[in-house]
Known about the structure:
two-stranded antiparallel sheet, 2 domains, 3 helices, 3-stranded antiparallel β-sheet
Amino acid sequence: MEITVRHLGDVQFEIKARQHAIISDQPENAGGFDEGMTPPELLLASLGSCAAFYAAQYLHRRGLAQEGLSVRVQAEKVKGPARLENFQIVITSPVDLPQEHLDGMQTAAHQCLVHHTLMHPPKITIATENSAAAPVQAGV
């Protein structure tokens, strides 16, 4: 699995995966144009859409209504180091369901790949390199 991110100017970036592209930006009060979600919002979107997928699959497998299912994800910004903390996911069923199916959707959402990734932090490495097109300046 891979995505690429390309700087468009100022604080905007184009993010591509397969044949899909989205824009990441900052709000106007942070120097952006507010033409896309911020990186932390994209993280919440990833978690929420993954949880929604698993909840919808639970409903689908049981022949229950899934059209109109919604998920809200919230998190707090904290410092030391700066990060998101205290994620809260709320799954709202499109119809009234008995508690057993609400519990089933919750259990299904816990199987989400993004949820598992956040619950078991991955190893992350960061490397830098020069572009093949960019000349390397030595001795500056």
